[in-house]
Write a structure and sequence with these properties.
It is built from eleven helices and eight strands. It is α/β, with parallel strands linked by helices. It has an eight-stranded parallel barrel, surrounded by six helices. The chain is globular. The protein binds 5,10-methenyl-6,7,8-trihydrofolic acid, 3-methyl-2-oxobutanoic acid and magnesium ion (MG). The site of 3-methyl-2-oxobutanoic acid has 11 residues, from strand 6. It catalyses: (6R)-5,10-methylene-5,6,7,8-tetrahydrofolate + 3-methyl-2-oxobutanoate + H2O = 2-dehydropantoate + (6S)-5,6,7,8-tetrahydrofolate.
Amino acid sequence: MSSPVAVPKSALYGGQSGRRITVRDVAAAKERGEKWPMVTAYDAMTARVFDEAGIPVLLVGDSAAMVVYGYDSTLPVSVDDLMPLTAAVVRGSSRAMVVADLPFGSYQASPQQALETAVRFMKEAGAHAVKLEGGRRVLPQVEALVSAGIPVMAHLGLTPQSVNAFGGYRVQGRGQAGDELMADAKDLQAAGAFSVVLECVPAELAERVTTSLAIPTIGIGAGPSTDAQVLVWQDLMGLTARPAKFVKKYSDLAGEMDRAVRAFADEVTGGVFPSAEHTYH
Ligand SMILES: Nc1nc(=O)c2c([nH]1)NC[C@@H]1CN(c3ccc(C(=O)N[C@@H](CCC(=O)O)C(=O)O)cc3)CN21
Ligand SMILES: CC(C)C(=O)C(=O)O
Ligand SMILES: [Mg+2]
């Protein structure tokens, strides 16, 4: 039997406020030095499970392109694809802040385009904040959204919508590029972003960015020093075939689902299911 490990729990993670987590709660957690978890969600039932577990922030990621829709990158997914998933996550949760990831092509063209897209996610899907990828190249977009009262989560490092420009999913921010990323992070904070995701960057860079910023950093493949950590839920649950190095598997849902569906199939073919207890008369 394994001995229980004492896990320090933050007031943000598992908070019992009875209302939604807000950007103010997220800011206060950094001031208190409390780390918190974020996970993706794409439907109401998983959102409810994560919400009831006390996860303070749920991200409806454009990773839905890959884990929900089966594309091999995040580029093909549209606003219309993500809108119903976002609405479902909002309906399935009551305490988490729900962040809508703006998909490729829905905000890059102009601040006006970014505002129109973000307003749809807030108004029609009920999202509480939006996320977009990029640094100084999207500052006008960030400023337009913040001016409209829309909380913006930024995203630096391995920004998957730029996978074709990077030539693959590779670590970002090594050497000189680290100084560029630091400058992007500071400018995003100055533009009013309430948090910034750091994806696939050296831990030392993520630590420097985290201590240099007043807003929280959310790491994925960015080492242990960021204020928060995010994973795609299918990765941490063991549903993903070949997860990245930064993924830790906390469950083997693929194995469990395989076992369960084979058991059902065997009982159907063997005439065992349904028995009397699952039958109406
Ligand atoms: N299921 C899932 N999980 C994710 O974390 C995720 C997505 N999908 N889709 C969108 C992006 C793509 N992401 C990825 C995908 C692959 C690697 C990857 O294979 N990385 C290499 C590192 C290569 C290097 O060392 O430069 C690895 O071996 O982990 C990283 C991030 C993260 N995001
Ligand atoms: C992995 C997170 C940060 C993301 O952007 C997504 O799931 O789309
Ligand atoms: Mg994303």
